[in-house]
Automatic annotation (TrEMBL):
Keywords for this protein: Acyltransferase, ANK repeat, Cytoplasmic vesicle, Golgi apparatus, Lipoprotein, Membrane, Palmitate, Repeat, Transferase, Transmembrane, Transmembrane helix
SUPFAM superfamilies found in the cross-reference section: Ankyrin repeat
Transmembrane recorded as keyword: yes
Domain Palmitoyltransferase DHHC: 353-466
ANK repeat residue intervals: 78-110, 112-144, 145-177, 213-245
GO cellular component: cytoplasmic vesicle membrane; Golgi membrane
Transmembrane segments: 289-308, 314-332, 390-407, 439-460
Organism (species): Pavo cristatus
Membrane topology summary: Multi-pass membrane protein
Name of the protein described by the UniProt record: Palmitoyltransferase
Length: 507
């Protein structure tokens, strides 16, 4: 296997390609696999040899030839057995029949010296994998490239098969011939978040090293430029200080590859980890909620104090307010916001449990939220089962409180401020009430802002509850331009036909 992905020398099994007898290229054509069921054939089924009959799933013809004396364990000229052909084409009835007639379930064959289980995994046939394991197939056997079953499932991104193999006792840290674990292979060979994210749900060893270059999964992700995998590994707590056989850390490799985004991500993560180890910051993090409330109250008091200064210089007041806001933003960013707000301490493992009703995996919370409505920026949490009614109460009380503040502000101005609205107009009235009490004017503006968004969002939420749908579902149901999908019928040609007849028609 060379280059950016796995290759097969003897069975041309691309992401959706069957094993055909006459094909010897490496995953170049795009024809579709022969699937179980009735397929048009161009020759008499009674004249097919047993290999072609197996590839087509002709059970009766195969039984006829076996009963006539054909040995089911006999490989063909490519050193491939009938069980291999049946497994790669997902012919479950034929697999059961051949095994009952003495076929060896773990027979090695082909140029890659693979078992039928390996061939089924490469094609992503989960039902066939389940059947072969029930019949005694050994998932720990390695093929000619040194990969076991779980490694092949990871390489070809068949996450359901990975989950099934793990549920059947396969070690998540199983090493291949070169000492690479499935997590290392995912970081090295598969660009994107999956299956790395899925493997991390099962707590694999993040700091294990391979047997040749002594690289960790993070090293391989950096070397391959797999930003998504590197980010997931860093979030999971992968050690950034481990050195490989050449004495290089992950950051050293990123600098060598000149990947600026990777360099920035690693340096930023290193800086954040250094801050988390600071004793003072850890102590402040312990009292985060208290500091957050205290800072909010302090800000409100300080703004009111500055607004009510006896000085007539608005430049001085403006500079003081700007200094207060900048200082508070820096404090929240550097101290109170040291760690991200969390929603739930645990997250549902993807593809491992029954999916809750209307559940969505929130990337911000990294949690599976049942009855998902939205991720609220105002409370920094997801709204769903267990807290949706509290969110409605929050909006209701916020709306009522804001309206009450507006009323009391108007009442204060009418009783304590000398105004001439009818004589001088709105602008003069605004300057008069601002000069009378800048603090009350500040509270009035805040109340206006919160009244508008809270009342509108409360109305939308109540409307959605009344008609039984959520913000997430209503957003997904909006028509998107260019989202029309065309249904293309692809002819599934039998084994042995030419490649040109197998090419699908492009629209």
């Amino acid at each position: 296997m060379a280059g950016g992905g796995p290759a097969c020398k003897n069975h041309c099994h691309g992401p959706h390609r069957p094993h055909v007898h006459s094909c010897r290229s490496v995953c170049r054509e795009k024809d579709v696999p022969v699937l179980p069921g009735l397929h048009p054939i161009t020759e008499d089924p009674g004249t097919c040899d047993i290999v072609k009959a197996t590839q087509y799933g002709m059970l009766e013809r195969c039984k006829e030839l076996v009963e006539a004396g054909y040995d089911v364990r006999q490989p063909d000229k490519e050193n491939v057995t009938l069980l291999h052909w049946a497994a790669i084409n997902n012919r479950q009835e034929l697999v059961k029949y051949y095994i009952s007639k003495g076929a060896v379930v773990d027979q090695l064959g082909g140029d890659l010296n693979s078992t039928p289980l390996h061939w089924a995994i490469r094609q992503g046939h989960l039902p066939m994998v389940i059947l072969l394991l029930k019949c005694g197939a050994d998932p720990s056997l390695i093929d000619g490239e040194g990969f076991s079953s779980i490694h092949l499932a990871v390489l070809f991104q068949h996450v359901p098969i990975v989950a099934y193999l793990i549920s059947k006792g396969q070690n998540i840290d199983t090493a291949d011939f070169n000492g690479l674990t499935p997590l290392m292979l995912a970081a090295r060979k598969v660009v994107g978040p999956e299956p790395t994210r899925f493997l991390l749900k099962f707590n694999p060893s993040l700091n294990a090293v391979d047997g040749v270059q002594k690289n960790t999964a993070l090293h391989w992700a950096v070397t391959s430029g797999n930003v998504s995998a590197a980010e997931l590994l860093l979030e999971a707590g992968a050690n950034m200080d481990i050195k490989n056989a050449k004495g290089e850390t992950a950051l050293d490799l990123a600098i060598q590859t000149q990947n600026r985004f990777m360099i920035y991500m690693l340096m930023e993560e290193g800086r954040m980890r250094g801050r988390r180890n600071n004793r003072l910051l850890r102590m402040m993090e312990k009292y985060e909620l208290f500091l957050l409330l205290a800072s909010c109250l302090t800000l409100l008091w300080a703004v009111g104090y500055v607004m009510n200064l006896s000085s007539d210089s608005w430049l001085l007041k403006g500079c003081l307010l700007l200094f207060l806001l900048a200082g508070m933003a820096l404090f929240v960013r550097q101290f109170v916001g040291l760690k991200n707000l969390r929603y739930l301490p645990t997250a549902l493992m993807l593809s491992s449990v029954r999916k809750p009703l209307r559940s969505v995996h929130c990337l911000l919370c990294d949690s599976c939220v049942a009855r998902y409505d939205q991720h609220s920026l105002w409370i920094a949490q997801c709204i769903g089962v267990g807290n949706h009614h509290y969110y409605l109460l929050f909006l209701s009380f916020l709306t009522v409180t804001s309206v009450w503040l507006l009323y009391r502000s108007l009442l204060y101005w009418s009783n304590h401020c000398v105004t001439s609205y009818h004589a001088d107009g709105a602008w003069t009235y605004f300057t008069q009430i601002t000069s009378c009490s800048p603090w009350v004017s500040y509270i009035f503006l805040l109340a206006c802002f919160h009244t508008v968004w809270a009342s509108l969002w409360l109305t939308i939420q109540l409307y959605q509850v009344l008609f039984c749908f959520s913000s997430y579902s209503s957003h997904n149901e909006l028509p998107h331009e260019g989202s029309i999908k065309f249904e293309i019928l692809l002819a599934r040609k039998p084994v042995g036909t030419t490649i040109f007849k197998d090419l699908p028609v492009s629209l």
